Amino acid sequence: MPGASVRSAVSCLAAGLWLALLGATFAHAGTDTERAQGERLFRAQCVGCHSIEPGVHLAGPSLHGVVGRPAGSLTDFDYSSVLREADLVWNRDTLDAFLAGPDDFLPGTRMVLWGLDERTRGRIIDYLVSESGER
């Protein structure tokens, strides 16, 4: 019967759309969850020295908008000479290498951190990217 095959096709299409919407919902929820994890890790590991608020510096500079910013470039923060003279821009790769071992990446930096594991670094970097308006 031709009508049965049309109904079957429509049912399959509807089921496919429903699954696609369901998948998009879960993907969005996963992104929100990962961002929340990154924010939680940032608060646990970084807020003792860094703020995410623009212009609010603590022992370290504000990390608001850090992704895409040249190292040592905020004029209202007193960076170490190592960071002021570093010829690098903060991106996923440079942040990852720095957070793995700041003194190994830039010997002489004043950042006090033994290094973070890969998963923690990734979540924090994802959070910093989201706060920088980058994707």
How would you explain this protein's 3D organization?
With 135 residues, this protein is mainly α. It has one domain: Cytochrome Bc1 Complex, Chain D, domain 2 (Orthogonal Bundle), CATH 1.10.760.10. 56% of the residues lie in helices and 0% in strands. It is built from five helices and no strands. Helix 3 crosses helix 5. The protein is globular, with a radius of gyration of 22 Å. About 20% of the residues have low confidence.
What is the CATH domain class?
Mainly Alpha
General form: globular
According to CATH, the fold-level topology is Cytochrome Bc1 Complex, Chain D, domain 2
Count of helical stretches: 5
Strand fraction band? under 5%
Strand-pairing-aware structural class: mainly alpha
CATH architecture: Orthogonal Bundle
**SSE pattern:** HHHHH
Largest sheet entry? none
Number of strands: 0
Extract low-pLDDT stretches. Answer: 4-30
Q: What does the radius of gyration come to? A: 22 Å
The level of helicity is: 55-70%
- The whole-number mean of residue pLDDT values reads 79
Look at the structure and name the CATH superfamily: Cytochrome c-like domain
Signal peptide: 1-29
Protein name: C-type cytochrome
Organism: Billgrantia pellis
Domain Cytochrome c: 33-132
